[in-house]
Amino acid sequence: MTELPAPGSSPRTQGHRLNDRAVHDRTVMYEILDSTVLCHVAMVFDHQPFVLPMGFARVGDELLIHGSTGARFMREMAAGAPVCVSVTMLDGLVVARSTFESSMNYRSVVIMGNPRLLEGDEKAAAADAISDGLIPGRVAEVRPSTRKELAATMILALPLDETSVKVRTGLGEDDPEDLGKGVWAGVIPLRTIADAPIPMDEEAASLPIPPSVQAWIAKPKA
User: Fold this and answer.
1) Cα separation, 127 vs 133, whole angstroms
2) What is the pTM for the complete model shown?
3) Measured between alpha carbons, how far is residue 92 from residues 8, 27, 167 in Å?
4) What is the dotted CATH code of the domain comprising 19-192?
5) Dihedral sign, Cα of residue 73, residue 54, residue 92, residue 62
6) Are the beta carbons of 138 and 197 closer than 8 angstroms?
7) What is the pLDDT of residue 99?
8) Under a CB-based contact definition with an 8 Å cutoff, are residues 131 and 177 in contact?
9) What percent of the chain has pLDDT over 90?
10) Residues 127, 153: contact at Cβ < 8 Å?
11) Confidence bin at 21 (pLDDT 50/70/90)
12) CA 203 → CA 69, 197, 199, 206, distances in Å?
C-alpha cells in the first residue's frame, strides 16, 4: 500500500509564516474534515477567481462534492480545472490586551488538486455517502435517488494528496508592556449548536422526529 503524503509536504502547501501552527498528521486532518459539512471551493476561469460555499463529505482519502450538471462551476471542474478547497472550524476569538495581538483559535485544511468525475455505481454510492455525511443514517430513512435525479447531479472526488493543515489553540500572547494596565484579556470560545428542528408541513409535524435527525441534534458539536 502506497504511503500517502503528510499535510504540508508539497512545495505548494508548505507554510512560509506561522509554521508553528502547521500540522503534519493526516489523522488530525481527517478529524477536522469530519467535524463539519461546509467547504469553500475556489477556481479561476475567464481570468476571474470564484469562490463558492459547498457541502461535502470525506470518504477515505477523497473529498466528495456535488452539484447540478448544468452548473458551469461543476462542468469546469469536471473538465480538469484545478481547484483549491478550504475548510475552517472557528473555535474561539482570542481577546488580547491590544488589537494587534488579538487573534482567533481555529482548525483549517486547504486542499489543492484536480477533481475527478464519478460515474455509474461509484457515483450512486458517492451520492449516498454525501447524504449520510451531512446527516448520518438519513439515506436509510428516505426513498432511493431516482435515475433522473442522479443524471441531473454531478459528483466530483478530490484526492487528499496535496493538503495543508493549520491549528491555533490557547490564549493570546500580550506584549509585556501591556500587562498590569487594567485591560481584560482572554478567549471567547465558539461552537456550533442545533436548535429544535422545524417541520416542513403538517404531515411532517404529525410524525416523530427521525432517528438520524435526533442523533444529529444530540451529538456534540465542534
Assistant:
1) 10
2) 0.88
3) 24, 22, 12
4) 2.30.110.10
5) negative
6) no
7) 95
8) no
9) 82
10) yes
11) confident
12) 32, 14, 8, 5
Max Cα-Cα span within the chain? 68
pLDDT at 4: 73
Closest CA to 65 of 73, 77, 57: 57
Distance CA 177, CA 68 (A): 56
Say how far apart CA 156 and CA 7 lie, in whole Å: 21
Helices (H) and strands (E) in the chain, counts: 6, 10
- Please name which of 166, 51, 42 lies closest in space to residue 103, comparing C-alpha atoms: 166
Is the distance from CB of 160 to CB of 29 less than 8 angstroms? yes
Mean pLDDT over 3-8 rounds to: 73
Q: Confirm if 85 and 39 have CB atoms less than 8 A apart.
A: yes
Residues 6+ apart with CB under 8 A from 221: 191, 192, 193, 194
Measured CA to CA, the distance from residue 25 to residue 29 in angstroms comes to 7
pLDDT at 41: 97
